[in-house]
Design brief:
CATH topology of the domain at 1-166: Leucine-rich Repeat Variant
Strand content: under 5%
Distance between the termini: 123 Å
Keywords: Membrane, Repeat
GO biological process, one term: phosphatidylinositol biosynthetic process
Number of strands: 0
Shape: rod-shaped
Main location: membrane
Largest sheet: none
Helix content: 55-70%
Domain Vacuolar protein 14 C-terminal Fig4-binding: 456-634
InterPro entries: ARM-like (IPR011989), ARM-type_fold (IPR016024), Vac14 (IPR026825), VAC14_Fig4p-bd (IPR021841)
CATH architecture of the domain at 1-166: Alpha Horseshoe
């Protein structure tokens, strides 16, 4: 006995389960006709009963053909219901949604088609079921069967149109679903989500910016998928344009952490896009991003261009210049530069009102101070200098952590880095200290000498460069006085001699020391006299250096007395080389004043005798001929009438040269004793050798 399916006719019920599609289709047309008749008589109970039968007995049947027939029948009812469709949605949508998970892909396709027809008729009336429909569409987007995906895509487009028409769409519930799925690893699922995000953002009545912080990380994860980069990039670009138009509605702080994270991505397009967003954020947001300075620096410092573009600094060495391989890399560097400059401007604009904790910023700067890129290291130094100039009180709390690291940078292989580091150290050393504050100038001088002592190659290779640049940033008198005091206490006589030689060469040959040379030529004040005495006491470690100091300060009588003491000093080949260099210095522009004084030999007999003393020290070499030629140009005079006594007229009230001479003799004695001990030690080792 056949089951009763009233109001479906027995023939219609049999046809709905037929394996032939045309027969099932014919049955659906009969259902359409019956539905129309019931509606004409306003008789809805039979319609509900019919939908119940189509849903439970057919759409949920174990027989796949019956399920297909049931779906066709439900679709036929929906088509005829038209504007009354929302009254019957629960009876229609529930079984259809169940069929969207059917193992038979043909049933799933029919379910997509049926739901499409229902939604097309119901329009906004189907929105209460949006969550279930969206969930089903998300699954179908990853279906392996192309026909199913095609059907789902048509339904997906229809749902987007309906949402765009409805002012009552539940955006909060939608975003909850989106957040749950945004981190999926499936390319198809990601494409589905990006499509919905893009569609929602394009709807004028929906403000997606409010929810953007919740999905931005997921969008950047999707951007890393090569198959979706174009669509995802377009969606992100659209969001960014909206942000530019409505910066007041944007939660910059909430999204910046995400941008910082992805700006360090190994995927070039992700890194570039994150930096482009960050560039706009620091431009539009103002001071609100200052508390995130440490993170922003972490993002931009490693990506700065290879040529920093500071016209005041020398260009990097060719070995340090790496060309950008692509337009993207050039754009990354451009963005990083702009972000870095803008953040510096924000600190400038806010001054002491800078309300961020400097601790994390300093930690980041310390981390990147030994970065492989020269330009990154230079940017770090610029930041430290900038913070110190703009926020000296806040930076004072971090000086103990920063200062030692800056001293280590003096060993950097790049000259431009060392130059900028010297400027930073000099700026920190200028501040006058109180009893409660450290004297960073003195600490700087102490550490610099320690650095030279422990790294003699650095002293030879870059010592002159460092000291010359320091004399640009700081008063040369202070530098030489401080080093003189420290070197006077130095126990390593060999190092002292080397340092004196370096300092003396700089003093007598460089334009940066013009003011100091002027001071030493005119000992007309107590500070200048004290400076001369300080240098003299140390210059004694290098006999020819102290002679040149006396020549520079025009104490020619004492220079003669010193030269007489050279008879007691061991004259080595190195010593003669230094005499040769001193002769060359006498011929240099620095000593033009001295050569002009030779025009009046009667007033400067001690000068003439000092030069003859140098001549007598030299073997007959090129330097000997050069000095002899100079002395032959002196007008005729009688040198034998003046003895080595007294001081020049300018020495009245000047240094006590008797005391200074005893200091010179004492130091030379110490050097002799040191050399004697060295020779004995060397001999004992030879005797003990097997």
């Amino acid at each position: 006995m056949e089951r009763e399916y009233t109001p479906l006719s027995p023939h219609c019920a049999r046809a709905l389960s037929d394996k032939i599609y045309e027969r099932r289709k014919a049955a659906s047309l009969e259902i359409e006709k019956s539905t129309k008749e019931f509606l004409t008589r306003n008789n809805t109970p039979p319609i509900r009963k019919m939908l119940k039968i189509l849903g439970q007995d057919f759409a949920l049947s174990p027989n796949s053909n019956s399920r297909k027939g049931g779906l066709l029948g439900i679709s036929a009812v929906a088509i005829q219901l038209k504007h009354r469709c929302p009254e019957f949605l629960d009876e229609m949508i529930t079984p259809v949604l169940a069929c969207l998970s059917d193992p038979d892909h043909r049933v799933k396709y029919h379910a997509c088609e049926s739901l499409y027809n229902i939604v097309k008729v119901a329009r906004g009336g189907c929105l209460p079921y949006f969550t279930h429909i969206f969930d089903a569409l998300a699954r179908l987007a990853t279906d392996q069967e192309g026909s199913v995906r095609s059907g789902a895509e048509a339904l997906d487009r229809l749902m987007k149109d309906i949402v765009s028409e409805s002012p009552a769409f539940d955006l909060v519930s939608f975003m909850t679903m989106l957040r749950e799925r945004i981190m999926t690893q499936s390319t198809a699922a990601r494409q589905f989500l990006v499509g919905w995000i893009s569609a929602m953002n394009s709807m004028p009545d929906i403000d997606m910016l409010v929810f953007l912080p919740e999905i931005l990380h997921g969008l950047f994860e999707i951007l890393a998928d090569p198959a979706l980069q174009r669509n995802c990039q377009s969606t992100l670009d659209s969001f960014l344009e909206t942000i530019k138009k409505n910066p007041q509605s944007t939660s910059f702080v909430d999204m910046t952490a995400t941008l910082i994270d992805h700006s360090q991505s190994s995927v070039e397009v992700v890194q570039l896009t994150a930096l482009q967003w960050l560039e706009q954020f620091v431009t539009l947001s103002g001071r609100s991003l200052l508390p995130l300075t440490s993170g922003i620096l972490t993002a931009v410092l490693p990506t700065l261009p290879n040529r920093y573009g500071n016209p005041c600094l020398p260009l990097p060495r060719s070995s340090d210049t790496v060309s950008c391989d692509s337009e993207s890399q050039r754009e990354i560097s451009r963005c990083a530069t702009n972000i870095n400059e803008r953040m510096l401007e924000l600190v400038t604009a806010e001054g002491e009102d800078f309300d961020a904790d400097l601790g994390p910023v300093i930690s980041v700067l310390r981390e990147f101070l030994d970065h492989d890129s020269t330009q990154t290291r230079m940017a770090v130094l610029r930041w430290i200098l900038h913070l110190y100039c703009k926020l000296p009180a806040k930076m004072q709390n971090h000086m103990d952590a920063v200062f030692p690291i800056l001293l280590n940078v003096l060993s950097d292989e790049a000259d431009e880095v060392v130059l900028l580091d010297l400027e930073v150290l000099s700026e920190m050393s200028k501040k006058e200290t109180t009893n409660d504050e450290k004297d960073y100038f003195q600490q700087f001088m102490n550490s610099l000498l320690d650095l030279f002592r422990n790294d003699q190659k650095l002293l030879e290779r870059r010592g002159s460069f460092i000291i010359r640049q320091l004399c640009v940033f700081l008063p040369p008198e202070d530098i030489y006085r401080s080093m003189g005091i420290l070197l006077e206490k130095e126990e390593d006589l060999r190092f002292s001699e080397h340092m004196v030689k370096t300092l003396n060469t700089i003093l007598l040959t460089t334009s940066e020391l013009f003011s100091l040379r002027t001071s030493l030529k005119q000992l007309d004040t107590e500070p200048r006299k004290e400076l001369f005495v300080c240098l003299y006491r140390v210059w004694c470690h290098h006999p020819l250096a102290v002679v040149s100091l006396c020549l520079l300060s025009q104490h020619y009588t004492h220079a003669c007395e010193l030269l007489q003491r050279f008879a007691e000093i061991e004259v080595t080949s190195d010593f003669l080389v230094e005499v040769d260099k001193l002769v060359q210095l006498v011929e240099s522009p620095i000593f033009t004043f001295l050569r002009l004084q030779l025009l009046e030999p009667e007033k400067n007999q001690d000068l003439v005798k000092a030069l003859y003393g140098l001549l007598m020290l030299l073997p007959q070499s090129e330097a000997f001929l050069l000095l002899r030629t100079r002395l032959m140009c002196i007008p005729n005079q009688n040198l034998t009438s003046r003895s080595f006594k007294g001081e020049p007229p300018s020495s009245e009230g000047g240094p006590d040269f008797k005391e200074l001479l005893s200091i010179f003799e004492g130091i030379q004695q110490r050097k002799k004793e040191r050399e004697s001990r060295r020779q004995k030690h060397k001999l004992s080792h030879k005797l003990l050798a097997p």
